Automatic annotation (TrEMBL):
<keyword id="KW-0378">Hydrolase</keyword>
<keyword id="KW-0597">Phosphoprotein</keyword>
<dbReference type="InterPro" id="IPR005225">
    <property type="entry name" value="Small_GTP-bd"/>
</dbReference>
<dbReference type="InterPro" id="IPR001806">
    <property type="entry name" value="Small_GTPase"/>
</dbReference>
<keyword id="KW-0072">Autophagy</keyword>
<dbReference type="GO" id="GO:0006914">
    <property type="term" value="P:autophagy"/>
</dbReference>
<dbReference type="GO" id="GO:0005819">
    <property type="term" value="C:spindle"/>
</dbReference>
<keyword id="KW-0342">GTP-binding</keyword>
<dbReference type="GO" id="GO:0015031">
    <property type="term" value="P:protein transport"/>
</dbReference>
<comment type="subunit">
    <text>Interacts with ZFYVE20. Does not interact with the GDP dissociation inhibitors ARHGDIA and ARHGDIB.</text>
</comment>
<keyword id="KW-0963">Cytoplasm</keyword>
<keyword id="KW-0968">Cytoplasmic vesicle</keyword>
<keyword id="KW-0449">Lipoprotein</keyword>
<keyword id="KW-0547">Nucleotide-binding</keyword>
<comment type="similarity">
    <text>Belongs to the small GTPase superfamily. Rab family.</text>
</comment>
<keyword id="KW-0206">Cytoskeleton</keyword>
<keyword id="KW-0460">Magnesium</keyword>
């Protein structure tokens, strides 16, 4: 099996402004973009190949738009995802409410998708811990309850970002019943063209 190609579809979900795009930028391009915030429209795709125990694992990452206006579109992008990184901002409790929405949605529509809860903007607490609005232990308990994983990251400093994506890839390799990935059954980029009315709506 060593040397075999493995493609993993990963979707980024979470309220607008929580830092999904920044997380992907940090992981893929090792940078933190300064300047005015630009919201994602629809979704963006990027792929990154990494090595996991001698296998090349390609993470195909769909960065979705957090605005509720694009909610129906985000559903297209999580279809068939093997991992969902559901983000919230540690300084914004309302963003954690949105996490619960996406978790429920994934639990009912994508039962084989592993869930990674990600608290972003950890650097904002460095000089002022009172800015924290989402308790670490509450989220850890919630992650256990949903059989997910929990991380807190900073895209500004890079803290925990590589670890998060590396664990996504490792978990996939470790916990997925192994199948030979080919062009036919690997990540299908044409999925974005599928109709989104066939999934559940709330
Ligand atoms: N200090 C700090 N700011 C961050 C961090 N991550 C993101 N930001 C800032 O938060 C704002 C929103 O970041 P984005 O990555 O665009 O957020 P998003 O979740 O992709 O937003 P949508 O595309 O609207 O869904 C930007 O101004 C970023 O610079 C972080 O780790 N630390």
């Amino acid at each position: 099996m060593s040397g075999q190609r493995v493609d993993v579809k990963v979707v980024m979900l979470g309220k607008e402004f929580v830092g999904k795009t920044s997380l992907v930028e940090r992981y893929v391009h090792h940078r933190f973009l300064l300047g005015p915030y630009q919201n994602t429209i629809g979704a963006a795709f990027v792929a990154k190949a990494i090595n996991v125990e001698g296998r090349v694992v390609t993470l195909g990452i769909w960065d979705t738009a957090g605005s509720e206006r694009y909610e129906a579109m985000s559903r297209i992008y999580y279809r068939g995802a093997k991992a969902a990184i559901v983000c919230y901002d540690v300084t914004d409790s309302s963003s954690f409410q949105r996490v619960k929405f996406w978790v429920k949605e994934l639990q009912s529509c994508e039962q084989h998708c592993r869930i990674y809860l990600c608290g972003t903007k950890l650097d904002l607490l460095e000089n002022d811990r009172s800015k924290r609005q989402v308790d670490f232990h509450d989220v850890r308990d919630y992650a256990e309850e949903i059989k997910g994983r929990h991380y807190e990251t900073s895209s500004k400093t890079g803290q925990n970002v590589d670890e998060l994506f590396q664990n996504v890839a490792e978990d996939y390799v470790h916990f997925t019943p192994f199948q030979v990935m080919t062009e036919e059954n690997g990540v299908d980029l044409s999925q974005k063209k599928e109709t989104y009315f066939s999934c559940c709506h709330h």
